[in-house]
Design brief:
mainly alpha, disordered C terminus, globular, 450 residues
Length: 450
């Protein structure tokens, strides 16, 4: 995928300056974590001891391992952890540096938002169909809260205003360089206005007065589409973005975390990208269960189109909501990935010797593919008896909210280790055959088989 514009990229330098508590763009005026205090300190009772040093720097490798091995983080830690997990804050930054960076990101986000609002004024107010009374009331609450935020900003101290004026000038210079594609953005706004009301409105976060958060979600999505024209907006992004907004409860933080996440998975929202992921799932299923793979192929079900939503939305609807959030951060930890194992083996070997994966190992088999396979194999008997794709889709739809996350994770990990062991043994067999030209195989993956 093409890289996003510099204006939309999270600054990776260490941001220096005096800490401020303001949350530019927060939908409830809340500060997501007091960034002036040490984050996740080693003496914290959260169970994250050893992940953060005395100045607030995060050991990224330990954090990702902790998330995976503990099956996610505690809900009380989630808001803080996601800022690191999804790239809003560099793990090497101190707590004080993050305070300054958060203010800079808040100002930049507001400047980006004002740009599309100025160039496409017709998109400032959401298009309503006139029959959704709850959403009509939400629009009024949202506009009222926006006026209150502007009044609050006007009451800031002179020193705070002067500092913010400098940050605004910096942001303006950067963002003025970006040329918006107004025609494409208009189309994106049209689709967003259809999708946002369909977001999971039965969640507590979007119920009652929380329905105004749908308007916050809309502004995050439009800003993303405006400054990421190579990706723009595709149906389903509202579901992903709503996770960030619900957990972070901050428009600013949601935008930057969502943008960083989308930079990694944007290809999945393109036809070729999703097709490739499904093809990988088909290949993995052939490795793990040739009989089931052959049956689906005979019934013209081998394309696994019924798995599209699972992989696109990260199994968001297949598990109970709190478990779906856990799974989202587990998958995003990227801890049990074949490429990650290769890098760990390289470090263990001091960067010397052979560090490539065995030829029989496909490094593109990500853990989410093993998770998908675990679900398929758990319901193997039903799949073998399904005669048509329509029945398969009906069956997979019936699984929504009913799967057991812990059992599925355990099965996926077992499949992963079984696949790796088989691949390594196959490679050993090949290298044990007498040949003067073959080098001894030295990629044991030992830490994952103990």
């Amino acid at each position: 995928m093409e890289r996003q514009s510099d204006a939309a990229a999270v600054p990776q330098r260490k941001a220096m300056g005096s800490p401020q508590n303001g949350d530019e763009g927060s939908n409830r005026g809340a500060v997501p974590g007091n960034l002036c205090q040490p984050l996740l300190s080693p003496c914290s009772s959260s169970g994250l001891q050893g992940v953060v040093d005395s100045e607030g720097r995060v050991d990224e490798s330990r954090l990702r391992a902790y998330i995976f091995k503990q099956g996610g983080v505690l809900p009380g830690d989630r808001r803080l952890v996601w800022g690191f997990l999804f790239g809003m804050y560099p793990c090497s930054s101190t707590a004080l540096e993050r305070a300054a960076l958060s203010e800079e990101l808040g100002v930049r986000y507001q400047t980006m938002k004002r740009k599309w609002q100025r160039e496409l004024p017709g998109a400032v107010r959401m298009r309503l169909n006139g029959t959704d009374e709850e959403l009509i009331a939400a629009v009024k609450r949202f506009e009222r809260s926006r006026l209150e935020a502007e009044e609050s900003e006007a009451e800031e101290s002179e020193e705070a205003r002067e500092k913010k004026a400098f940050l605004k000038l910096q942001a303006q210079v950067l963002i003025d360089r970006v040329q918006l594609d107004i025609e494409e953005l208009q189309e994106a706004v049209r689709i967003i206005d259809k999708d946002v009301p369909r977001t999971e409105r039965d969640l507590d976060y979007f119920l009652g007065e929380g329905s105004a958060n749908l308007l916050v979600l809309r502004e995050v999505l439009i800003t993303f589409a405006a400054f990421h024209p190579d990706v723009s907006y595709t149906q389903g992004m509202n579901e992903l973005c709503s996770r960030f907004l619900e957990v972070l409860d901050s428009e600013r933080d949601s935008y930057w975390c969502f943008s960083s996440y989308m930079e990694k998975i944007a290809d999945d929202f393109k036809a070729d990208g999703l097709r490739r992921k499904i093809e990988l799932e088909v290949k993995l299923l052939q490795e793990l269960d040739p009989e089931l793979h052959a049956h689906l192929g005979r019934e013209d079900l081998g394309s696994l189109t019924f798995c599209h939503r699972w992989l696109l939305l990260g199994f968001q609807r297949e598990f109970e909501h709190s478990d779906a959030l856990r799974l989202f951060e587990i998958l995003s930890s990227n801890h049990l990935e074949l490429n990650e194992i290769r890098d760990q083996e390289r470090l263990r070997g001091g960067g010397e010797g052979r560090t490539e994966l065995p030829p029989s190992v496909n490094p593109d088999f990500t853990f989410e593919l093993f998770l998908c396979a675990a679900i398929l194999l758990e319901h193997r008997a039903t799949l073998l008896s399904c005669p048509s794709e329509v029945q398969l889709i009906q069956f997979t739809n019936s699984l929504q909210g009913k799967l057991d996350l812990n059992a599925t994770l355990q099965k996926a990990e077992e499949l992963f280790i079984k696949y790796c062991k088989k691949s390594v043994l196959d490679c050993f067999k090949n290298h044990c055959l007498p040949s003067k030209d073959r080098e001894p195989f030295s990629f044991p993956l030992r830490s994952f088989f103990s």
